[in-house]
Amino acid sequence: MDLSDNLADIVARVGRSVVAVHGRHRMPSSGVIWRRGVVVTAAHTLRREDGIEVTLTDGRTVAAVLAGLDLGSDVGVLKLDGVDLDPIGSGDAHSLKPGHLALAVARADDSGVSADFGVIGSIGGPWRTWKGGQLDAFVRLDGGLRPGFSGAALADMRGQVIGICTSALMRGAGIVIPGMTVERVTDELLAKGRVSRGYLGVGTQRVGLLDAWVNKMNLSFSSGLLINSLAPGGPAEQAGVLIGDVLIELDGKPCRDMGDVSAALGSASIGQQLHIALIRGGERHACSVTVDERPQRNSCR
Question: Which residues form the PDZ domain (predicted)?
Fold first, then answer.
């Protein structure tokens, strides 16, 4: 009974800062009061920009204003006017180990607080998502998330909230967006409504490099990125990149997959020149491209 009572106490305590977010049709998602007047949730659950509402812990439903979305890290930030509820305290995701027990705490407006008891499946260092976002730690839950649990708070067995849950960053598995990532992204979204990332204006496909190319150019890797589309007037097109080129290096670093490209296109890269190496017609070709800010709704990297 001691374990059960302890779990129930954690759910009740964390649940005081967990809300239901009505930003899509039918089932609401969950959100967490991260700062006074600020709710964070999973960005993919917000399907509209206007008419978003939040059901608070006391049962009231209030209007929320969308401060910004970052689909790369799947963090959405909402502002609440005239709501002065205590924010949640966050812990450090790096304290977790595979096998640690955890509690996901969610809220639906019709049934109140809900909990899901699970296990930390794996944990690692900083992780770049397939959407280009950077999480400060990789934390995978053992299994998927139940409906309505995206945006829920994830607490350890000491009752510390180590982040929020999402089902959008890895197929078939729940991922935790660490508290330190939520803090960083929330700061940027509140300041300017978006998270800035670099942009080359290329569409790519990973391809294997011919052995002859690898030997001729003395490469230490065997894959590159085939340029299969160019954004009209984008940085890469202006630099003279052509469809059919194979991208192999960015600023002297191997470019083997889109993860290597995303790693070079953080906010600090905007406005900077990148020296890129290409294979064109079986020969090495070099040029420089000035990185632009990535359009918020453009699928090119």
Answer: 206-282
